[in-house]
Design a protein that fits this description.
alpha+beta; 11-stranded mixed beta sheet; 6-stranded mixed beta sheet; 32% helix
Length: 502
């Protein structure tokens, strides 16, 4: 998010003074790191939680269309960035990988067919296929077909033009563009405090984590894009818009394989249905990933738990985030989310063989020895006040902005990074209302469909889609080569930049 905002502002205002503060020694090494997230270009093609069934059996596609519209904005920005040298290496962050929904059982297959029928009439989903034939299933997903008992009906919604995204590579390239254009970058620096002066500007207190030296940055605008660490920083800023908000950290784990026989037999991101009573973030999926030019498979997520708000955070993050203004919200969620608590406890009790057994629901023929457990990133789910409930837990992405537009921050998780561009355009509209109208002509060069619902404009959609597909090389096969078994174990670190423009 911070990288996207900095690139957009640099394109619009090349003479502005900008500083990026990152607490680690490298960029995009926490939530945006490819090993810390699913790498799905979230466009609602395969995520079944975006298409719930109504009581009458019809399918509500409202959220799916909205998420896809948001992704189209990001996709257009990426295409512009590649064409104009902002992103020099498209294949290092973006690869074409089919997005697939997978269900078992007659009732679920019936739901999937109704989902297909509800979506396929929309231009954004027109290429989706419904598959319930055993032979076609086997041809497209050989790893999942191996040793499968097809006596139980299976169904697929298959969309060929999905994407796998390395958000770490994307973020580093965007930050590199800003740095080359004059943005100061302070790595290994922690933001310890934010205070607003009488003139409306912010003083950002920054500490060098290696030397302990403190410095202060004065900024007219601050964006807090610190992943799970955003809430404490917004609380320190003292803005009223952050009052009442809390956060609940949920960790993640994956089963990972680099066995080239397996990666060759599974070229898709396949999403299933969440276990009964589990939250939306627990939707199981078996994914092709392309990371550093190599193909991998990930299965999960399995939930973990830690009071840390960041993978390299502190165990005091959660308790120190409880304030008088959010205590009722936090307690309310604690009392009402017993299902989530039960789910988390069950997940924490899983053995390694239990996790592989869960994978066998997708790929019955897999062997334990081909898979290893990898720790993903921390996600801090948003808790907000709700009348009559104390507080409610939300699983989406929330952007907070101060009334005077001088500071904004990002909370929450999925669809997150996939919708970074529309989210940051929204921040610019809210926080730079006096300049936004003047920016619009340039923004529409960058994102031709800005302000237009592409699902209502099929000809424009076809035009920008075809152009983006060519520029982003999505008309060519994915660039990953199979990884050697056991090769290249990667561990994630931390992404918590605060972008400040003075």
């Amino acid at each position: 998010m911070s990288a996207t905002l900095s690139a957009l502002l640099r394109l619009l205002e090349p003479n502005w003074s900008m500083t990026l503060v990152e607490r680690l020694d490298g960029a995009a090494a926490e939530s945006s790191d490819p090993w810390n997230n699913a790498g799905t270009g979230h466009s609602a093609l395969c995520e079944l939680n975006y298409t719930p069934a109504r009581p009458d059996g019809s399918i509500d596609i409202t959220k799916a269309v909205h998420v896809n519209e948001q992704f189209q904005v990001s996709r257009q920005f990426w295409a512009y960035a590649v064409e104009n040298g902002v992103i020099p290496d498209v294949r290092s962050f973006l690869n074409p990988i089919p997005h697939v929904s997978f269900v078992q059982g007659a009732d679920n297959v019936d739901y999937l067919k109704r989902r297909y029928e509800a979506l396929v009439g929309n231009p954004l989903f027109a290429s989706m296929e419904f598959i319930d034939d055993r032979d076609e299933f086997t041809r497209r997903l050989p790893l999942m077909a191996e040793k499968r008992d097809f006596s139980q009906p299976v169904g697929l919604n298959w969309t060929q033009d999905g994407t796998d995204v390395d958000f770490g590579s994307l973020s580093r390239q965007l930050i590199g563009f800003g740095a080359k254009a004059g943005m100061a970058t302070l790595f290994g620096h922690d933001v310890r405090d934010l205070s607003q002066g009488s003139d409306g500007t912010w003083t950002v207190k920054v500490v060098n984590r290696r030397t302990g030296v403190t410095r202060k940055i004065n900024a007219k605008f601050v964006f807090v894009g610190a992943g799970g660490g955003a809430l404490p920083l917004l609380q320190k800023a003292g803005i009223k818009e952050a009052k009442g908000f809390g956060g609940f950290p949920v960790g993640g784990q994956w089963l990972r394989s680099g066995n080239q026989a397996l990666t060759a037999a599974h070229q898709a991101k396949v999403y299933g249905l969440p276990p009964l009573g589990a939250p939306p973030m627990s939707v199981p999926h078996l994914d092709t990933r392309v990371i550093n030019g190599r193909s991998w498979l990930l299965f999960g997520p399995f939930a973990g738990w830690s009071p840390k708000f960041l993978k390299q955070g502190k165990v005091t993050d959660l308790p120190f985030s409880v304030k008088p203004d959010n205590l009722v919200s936090m307690l309310g969620v604690g009392l009402t989310e017993m299902g989530l608590l039960k789910y988390l406890i069950g997940q924490l009790l899983l053995s390694e063989s239990d996790r592989v057994d869960a994978l066998r629901e997708f790929a019955p023929g897999v062997k334990d020895s081909d898979w290893e457990l990898d720790i993903a990133g921390q996600r801090v789910q948003v808790i907000r006040k709700a009348k009559g409930k104390g507080g409610v837990l939300e699983f989406g992405t929330t952007v907070l902005t101060a009334a005077d537009g001088s500071i904004a921050g990002l909370l929450g998780a999925s669809p997150g990074a996939s919708t970074a561009v529309p989210a940051m355009v929204d921040v610019m509209q809210r926080c730079f209302s006096d300049r936004y109208q003047g920016w619009l002509p340039r923004l529409k060069e960058i994102v031709p469909s800005l302000g237009i619902e592409l699902s209502d404009e099929p000809e424009l959609f076809e035009e920008v889609w075809a152009h983006g597909t060519k520029v982003l090389k999505l008309d060519k096969p994915a660039g990953g080569v199979p990884a050697a078994a056991g090769d290249g174990s990667a561990a994630g670190t931390e992404h918590s930049p605060t972008a400040a423009t003075a």
